[in-house]
Amino acid sequence: MSGGRSNCDSCVYYIYDEEYDCCYCDINLDEDEMSRFMTGTFQNCPYFRLDDEYGVVRHQM
């Protein structure tokens, strides 16, 4: 799957932290990946997974 900085909001690994009132990537990125993530140039993220909260429900039907 491909993703990118613009798709982070819909990624299962993009977590909202209430304590700090911000979102972060929950994947353990290496130094180069983190640099690209922070500068918004992390295109075609190999870790992107759609946060489909209704997928389980559809599967059970």
What is the H-and-E element order?
A: EEHH
Q: State the total count of DSSP E strands.
A: 2
| Major sheet strand order | 1-2
- Terminal-residue CA separation: 25 Å
Q: Tell me, rounded to a whole number, the average pLDDT.
A: 79
Helix content: 10-25%
- Total of DSSP H or I helical runs spanning 4+ residues: 2
Shape: globular
Structure, explained:
The chain is of the alpha+beta class. Helices cover 25% and strands 13% of the residues. It has a two-stranded antiparallel sheet with strand order 1-2. Strand 1 and strand 2 form a beta hairpin. The chain has 2 helices and 2 strands; from the N terminus they run E-E-H-H. It has helices at 31-39, 55-60; strands spanning 14-17, 22-25. The radius of gyration is 13 Å and the shape is globular.
Features:
61 residues; alpha+beta; two-stranded antiparallel sheet; globular; disordered N terminus
Task: Summarize, please.
The protein is 25% helix and 13% strand. The protein has 61 residues and is of the alpha+beta class.
SSE order and pairing:
Blueprint: E1 14-17, E2 22-25, H1 31-39, H2 55-60
Antiparallel strand pairs: 1-2
